[in-house]
Amino acid sequence: MTQRQTVAVLDALHSGSYPARFVGGCVRDSILGKSVKDYDIATPELPKRIIQLAERAGLRAIPTGIDHGTITVVSGGISFEITTLREDVKTFGRRAEVVFTENWEKDAARRDLTLNALYCDADGTVYDPINGLPDLEKGLIKFIGDPRARIAEDVLRVLRYFRFFAYYGKPPGDPNALSACREFSSQLGNLSVNRVWGEFSKILAAPDPTYTIALMSQWGVLEEILFSEIRLDCMDKLISFEKKFKKINPDPIRRLVATTNLDESSAKSLSKRLNLSGFDRNRLLRLVTAAISPDVESGDKKNREILFQLGEKTFSDLVLLGSASSPQYDWSKLMSLPDRLPIPPFPIAGKDIIEYGVPEGKEVGKILKTVKGWWADGGFCSDREKCLEKIKELVSR
Question: β-strand 60-65 against 40-43: which pairing, if any?
Fold first, then answer.
């Protein structure tokens, strides 16, 4: 609110005829003491007038959604979404026929959840036309008006409800909202898979979505997305183990593997159904089909070789997943292995082999693989000179 970029935008808007207020997530998160990621501002000013006011103040105005009343104003490298107050006249699924208004209550009434209909002046005064502030304080995630009507406007709101519950909700959840989510959950398959995974991945990335995932399963929503056996106990154990390590961040793919019982075939089907990126698809398959895994009953030497073959990321992911499926063992020592006994960089490359007279081609790769295996068997201790000696020995045979 007080940073110079924000003040410049508000001063520009206030030079017009109407007030401007922060709205939505930035207000909600500020009240909760969370960091603000998006800057959304609402005003009765019309879009073309917003552009005029911004440019008159020397700010860049981009008509990103001018037909819907949204202008992006850039101030000091920060983007602010400025939207004219709107009122729905008719709704057509995701689309709506809107008119611009000067009425803050009507603008609030068209939003989806009560905790997203909070406004705030530049001086910190909060306006709550839908009475969402008590809901926010209680962790009660509620739709504005009839939940069924709001979800009918956009079925993705089924997943948005659970996403907001994962980050802001407290048990047990609003029964009217949950009932409506169950009613419309069978229609999730009609949506763009990118939209579905976009929301579901955010749920999985919440600090602790255990209760939310269980709630989705209880109300018949989760099965409409995953179509597989659900392992809620593994998710719970995984997150409990994750919390022990500060450097472990929430990861949707790792948690997806923990929540489901996948083999290679079902993992490929799920990847296709969710339209995962190539990177995420490969990660999912690596974790599901890994030929070798960290061995909690073996010593550091054996597991260090496994770490070398898997790479640190996959190794750590499999340790975490192992802790979820076999919690009777202590996996903490394996989790610390990459820090305790890091694998040094392999000291040679293909060009070193070529310099010994081996022509470019398959033979270079074959020798490189042999030297790398020899280096690993020796505990990764041999330096560059010893590795070069090994190359010379192999080439001279």
Answer: unpaired
Place of tokens 């042999």: 370
pLDDT digits (tens, 9 = 90+) for 162-196: 999 999 999 999 999 999 999 999 999 999 999 99
Task: Work out the end-to-end distance of the chain between its first and last CA atoms, rounded to an integer number of angstroms.
Answer: 73
* Lookup result for tokens 């003491």: 33
Question: Are 393 and 379 contacting, i.e. CB atoms less than 8 angstroms apart?
Answer: no
Domain assignments of the chain as residue spans, ordered by start:
1-138, 350-395
389: three-class secondary structure by DSSP: helix
List of E strands, 15-77? 21-23, 40-43, 60-65, 70-75
**Class of domain 1-138 (CATH, top level):** alpha beta
Place of tokens 């909202």: 177
The pTM (predicted TM-score) of the whole model is 0.89
Read off the tokens for 342: 């890091």
Query: 113: phi > 0 → left, psi -120 to 50 → alpha, else beta; which?
Result: beta
Mean pLDDT of 40-56: 96
* Rounded CA separation 194/213 (Å): 19
CA–CA distance, 330 with 244 (Å, rounded to integer)? 12
Please say whether the beta carbons of 273 and 227 come within 8 A: yes
Question: Which pLDDT score, from 0 to 100, does residue 89 have?
Answer: 73
